[in-house]
User: Fold this.
Amino acid sequence: MKAVVYNKSAKPDRLVYCDVEKPAPKDDEVLVRIRAVSVNAADYRSMKMGMIPARKIFGADVSGVVESAGKNVTLFRPGGEVVGELSGCGFGGFADFAVATEKALVMKPAGLSFVEAAAIPMASMTALQALRNKGNIRQGQEILILGSSGGVGTMAIQLARHFGAVITAVCSTRNMEQSRSLGADRVIDYTKEDFTAGNRKYDLILAVNGNYPLLKCRKALKPDGRYVLVGGALSQIFKAIVIGKPLSVGRKKILFLAAKTDTGDLNYLLDLAARGIIKPVIGKYFSAETTAEAMKYAAGGHSSGKVVIKWNPEG
Ligand SMILES: NC(=O)c1ccc[n+]([C@@H]2O[C@H](COP(=O)([O-])OP(=O)(O)OC[C@H]3O[C@@H](n4cnc5c(N)ncnc54)[C@H](OP(=O)(O)O)[C@@H]3O)[C@@H](O)[C@H]2O)c1
Assistant:
């Protein structure tokens, strides 16, 4: 089968589109014929940090068709259309076929295309868990999304709108209209305006992208407000982890999310998408052969929405 394999000495990108052996599912695994796969920070940041999957193939967010299933698999049968998040079972999505445990997969709703479905898992589960689990989001709350235009941010706006929050989104000039159309009530252009300049206070601040001073964010919280760090610059993540706890003394909370694959959450999100309540925003498409370019583009940190590889669209 064809796959994009990590090779430390391969120039220029260390990712090579080549022939490799098709994986064989173990008794508790499902073999999926990949139709689409989206790129996440988990792919390019793991590669940058030298955390290479055992099979040397990245790619976590996948959609495809079940080719075969091990004898202990009960939930999936050949021919079933599935969506998965494979970071917990060794990645492997940049390939014609990938193996996954049942815990990493759910059935794809008929109303969603493979491409749309592959854009959902990691970014959308992250947005959901940040807003609901850590942020305790409630109807009518004032929420600020720092970095509203990437994969996580575009989904965070739509989910916050679904939960009935009043949304202020922070992004650059070129993405302002996108944030507005997804449901933001106010949009702040980070290239022109400091979001902390006014006196507005928030029940919840979601730090998704960029590098915004933690103390300024804390000051912008209401007395019971929560700041939930999802991602952004590594220095922002580091600071929130180190000084988040001491800054959480009192009623304001500084929290960090480590998103987890949860098939209940994934089913919930796919159902919202199938009903048109949320829609994955896909900024750019690539082909299987140009996966290395897709990784480089996504790692640049300026994609609007998700980056999706149409791996085997005819399939
Ligand atoms: N905690 C977890 O469990 C978890 C899970 C998944 C992802 N993450 C993290 O979450 C972050 C977002 O992931 P993602 O997939 O959404 O990333 P992404 O799609 O690559 O984000 C790209 C977007 O970020 C925007 N951006 C860049 N610099 C910005 C700035 N200074 N202020 C505001 N926006 C800025 C860009 O807009 P412009 O070009 O217009 O600036 C672009 O639209 C990453 O850091 C990732 O590592 C964490």
